[in-house]
Amino acid sequence: MEILVTQVFNGLSGGSVLLLAALGLALTFGQMGVINMAHGEFIMAGAYTAFVVQQVVSSAGVSLLVSLPVAFVVGGVLGVVLEATLLRRMYHRPLDTLLVTWGVSLVLQQLTRDVFGTAGVDVVAPEWLAGPVEVLGFAFPRSRLFILGLAIAAFLALAAGLRFTPLGRRIRATVQNRQLAESSGISTRATDRLTFFIGSGFAGVAGVALTLVGSISPNLGTSYIVDAFLVVVVGGIGQIKGAVIAAFLLGVVQSWIEYTTTASIAKVLVFALIIAFLQVRPQGIYKLRTRSLA
């Protein structure tokens, strides 16, 4: 029983990290069709934002809480700058966006090395996240519970924003039929930028969460970008709830495979399972319904 609970929690914990990394991609890639390979570097920028904030705010607890909104803004601004300067010229050219954003990711990594150095740095976790919490005789790390709660809160905020706010209705209208949305008076250009700001902002929040997992370095984003894309594809393009199911499912499956093998073998086997799944269901868990004539 202890093994079952431990592995399921480890899987949910890993899935929460994947979900935070993939939520932004579910918007920018899933709903706008932009393959943004620099999304991983937005995660890295959020992590270094937490590091910088902690140099200014000495209290680890306060700096963590301050870092979350600041990293959201930093990631969002980076996304808007990328969208306004490069990606706006490349909509409907996914391969071009892939190559350009990959180049941007390399530039951002090098800039980070120049500013912070190549060695990894640590962000001190607050004391109230140290140690375990015992529930029914089982011990769960507080930092992992915090990341799990943060991922669920981010999902609920994004889902509520898309469903109940005017911006969410504009985003859904633009995704379902861009031409009809424009003819209805919706500025699809402004909607695209706000969508990119929100999606990239969630990447910054994911970066802050990752500072609780371990050291951060300029290569932090490359460790999560592929897994984040896999979550979006398995969940279904443009489907936020599909991303949630896929993230936790992949986390639990990988945790169980790692228990009997190694992390490397688990990664390979999970990738093979995803390929097999997409052969049977190429649209992913959920399929996006649009009114587009294309």
TrEMBL record:
GO MF, any single term: transmembrane transporter activity
A Pfam family that the UniProt record links to this protein: BPD_transp_2
Membrane-spanning intervals of the chain: 12-30, 68-87, 145-164, 194-216, 228-253, 259-280
Keywords: Amino-acid transport, Cell membrane, Membrane, Transmembrane, Transmembrane helix, Transport
UniProt keyword Cell membrane present: yes
Superkingdom per UniProt: Bacteria
Protein name stated in the entry: Urea ABC transporter permease subunit UrtB
Organism: Pseudonocardia broussonetiae
